[in-house]
Write a structure and sequence with these properties.
Elements lengths: L11 H7 L13 E7 L8 H8 L8 E7 L3 H10 L4 E5 L1 H5 L10 E8 L7 E3 L14 E4 L6 H11 L8 E4 L4 H9 L4 E3 L2 H9 L4 E3 L11 E6 H6 L1 H20 L1 H11 L10 H19 L11 H13 L19 H4 L4 H10 L2
Parallel strand pairs: 1-2, 1-3, 6-7, 6-8
Antiparallel strand pairs: 3-10, 4-10, 5-9
Helix pairs in contact: 1-14, 2-9, 2-10, 5-12, 7-11, 9-10, 9-14, 10-11
């Protein structure tokens, strides 16, 4: 991941605060690269991770972060198994289905609850005649990609509400201008993307309505998935990464403007011109804040799943006809053995460090 030198955007006070965070920095020559798969085009959703890299939080864990764009679980999971990437930000559904009868085991497990409150939404134009999931029979739904994990969940949602998924056309529209135009022009009836994508469309002047989703699909939607084989070899490697992620989200919340500017510095081709900076910053605050609300929606420690998260989704997928054996042990889906490590940092010092960044 491209990022500016950490000290170039920090004050002396910030550097002093960094000394009391409790983690020990490794020398640059000893840093390992952690390759993290991101399942869509780069957007400000990566801002917390970039900000953490700029603040030196991953360096303190002995690593540098390389964000790799890979769209869809069908692409991500083989890369995990091959060791091309170390972990992925991915949806939960494929690992559940992989443990159903006559289905190949993917060989992956979740170690960190990345999004405790689901980011997936079904959005329609405010003027649309669609008011409920039951109105989607025969309609066209725009999705990030046909291999995206949420397509499984969406099919289950439809079936659970009495809509035949085979009557619905799923169309890959990506994210951004092309997806937005597909909805505005009527090429698709529903945009089934995520919180920040829909917020951007509204900020651009297109009024939307969100369809109400069944409650079982509103809990955790994404986690950090890893190869079971590699996890068993080096659990601490993933524990250090997860601690960096937990700190990244808190740091971004503490100083959203600096978090956004870190993202622009890392990806200058996505940064606004100087004339547009103030207006773009205001819009990005709304977008990043919407994502942070889902990232930080936790009742307990960062990164922890609960059995309720999995029971809810298994029940929903069963109602949608995608799960026939709901009694698979949850330990095959996730582990919480690293949660204590994820949360082993000085929160007050972290927030002071973040607030001192420019």
């Amino acid at each position: 991941m491209r990022n500016p030198t950490p000290t170039s955007r920090m004050t002396a006070a910030a550097l002093a605060s960094a000394l009391v965070l409790g983690a020990t920095a490794s020398s640059a020559s000893a840093l390992e690269t952690f390759r993290f798969a991101w399942p869509s085009a780069i957007n400000s959703g990566v801002a917390p991770l970039v900000f953490a890299e700029q603040l030196g939080l991953f360096e303190r864990e002995g690593m540098t972060l390389d964000i790799v764009v890979l769209t869809g679980s069908g692409v991500i999971i083989p890369q995990l198994r091959q060791g091309t990437i170390d972990a992925a930000y991915s949806g939960l559904e494929p690992v559940i289905i992989s443990h159903q009868p006559d289905t190949p085991d993917l060989g992956v497990k979740f170690v960190y609850n990345f999004i405790p409150r689901s980011i997936w939404e079904m959005a329609v134009l405010a003027s649309s005649d669609i008011t409920d999931i039951t109105d989607l029979e025969g309609r066209t739904i725009g999705v990030l990609g046909l291999g995206s994990s949420n397509v499984l969940g969406t099919r289950a949602i439809l079936q659970s509400r009495g809509v035949d998924p085979e009557s619905v056309t799923f169309q890959a529209v990506g994210v951004g201008a092309a997806a937005f135009e597909a909805l505005r022009s009527g090429e698709i009836d529903v945009l089934n993307l995520f919180d920040t994508a829909h917020q951007r469309l509204e900020l651009a002047g297109t009024p939307l309505r969100r369809l109400e989703l069944p409650a079982d699909f509103t809990r955790s939607s994404h986690g950090v998935s890893v190869s079971i084989e590699r996890f068993e070899e080096r659990p601490e490697f993933f524990g250090r990464f997860g601690r960096g992620v937990a700190q990244a989200n808190l740091a971004c919340e503490a100083n959203i403007d600096a978090c956004i500017r870190a993202y622009w510095a890392a990806y200058p081709e996505l940064a606004p011109t100087r004339a547009q900076e103030a207006a773009t910053l205001e819009a990005e605050r709304a977008v990043v804040s919407a994502r942070l609300a889902n990232l930080l929606s936790v009742d307990g420690p960062f990164g922890a799943f609960s059995d309720a998260d999995w029971a809810s989704l298994v029940g929903a997928l069963q109602a949608g006809g995608l799960v026939t054996d709901p009694d698979v042990p949850f330990e095959l889906y996730y582990t919480d053995e690293l949660v204590e490590m994820f949360n082993d940092f000085d929160r007050e010092a972290l927030i002071a460090l973040a607030k001192a960044a420019q």
